[in-house]
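Why do we care about 3D structure at all? Because function follows from shape, and shape follows, mostly, from sequence. That is the central idea of this module. The next example makes it concrete: a single protein chain, its amino acid sequence, and then its structure expressed as tokens.
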Amino acid sequence: MEEKFEIMPIELNTDAHNHTRGSDGRQTTFRTMLRAYNKGINTIAITDHDSVRGFRNLEKDIYSVMGTIREDKSYDTSRILEMLENMKVLKGTELITSYNGVIVEVLGYNFDIEKMEQEIANLRTTVKEKPYEALYKGFNKIIDEKGLKFDKSVLDEAYEKIKTEGKGGVVGPFYNELIKHEENKKLLKYTDENGEEKEADTMKLFINKHLYNKKSPLFVDMSNTRPTLKDTIDAIHRAGGQAFLAHAGRYKDKMPVEEYIDDMIAQGLDGLEVYYPDHTDELKEFLLGKVKEHGIKASGGSDDHHAEKEGIQYQTGRVAVPDIPETRWIKDTCESGKDFLNESIEIGEAIKELRELKELRNKKVKENKELDKQLNEKQEISR
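And the structure:
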């Protein structure tokens, strides 16, 4: 008979946004779990980009760990067993999509993994254009319409390389050629949050302030390179999951997200990622207000990759997700046993074996202590 965890009421310390080697994270799923657990987190979601590979990878990780433990009978399994018995792993993914020509991301939670894998594959078939193709066409249009001083051969060579070799990109070459000519730099001006005029003098600033900003003269519409927001939400729902808009604050440089949030919710979102490393208190209050207004859910997480991302170290556990009615779905998921660790037969079998190994080890330790005691008693008598 299949063994399951005992489901008990739990106090959660949650990070519902983490990436592993299932997409662009640096660590295995097992190491991501272990690092989170060592920081006092007992509930995480694995949310790899356009992927659910992290979950099957975790089963492989555990299989490998068990092989090592079987070979070394002296290995103390207590910490690993403690983690697997006490930690919850929510099923998640982060799907890259588009809304009004701007690239946005949607977090999916609590789906059927096999169905979600198929839905992700189906979404790829809706894409009409490769990103580098849209960028190449868009950049050429900007060059012509704005009368830029620009050596187009630089762009052509970059485009041909990625098309034939699958390497490189066109954004870097475009930006580098653009800034070579002083007369082009007027297009790089932008106004920051304090009303101060600045110049996008790094490629990161160029991308955030101009390339994907609908109000910029350097904007390129990427609608055809990603599935639509509606299609993505529908795909998550077909897989039995819930769809949350990820890190709304990161789109503020690209569009007036506060003005669009109601329409985005109307397309079927089940929730918003309210708690995020660079969300201000004001933005969190705004997003939570929208959650309450529309009767949807809230989530939060660190966006951990175990690496610097855009110059910022997003680390697991960096964001506090409060226990409020709008986040109660996380606790409900865990207490109903619908997390991945509880549903995985392979991990359930590993836990059963770890418990048996722990009992054997404890028995052996007890026997050794008894033998030591008897030896000491004999030595005392012989004196």
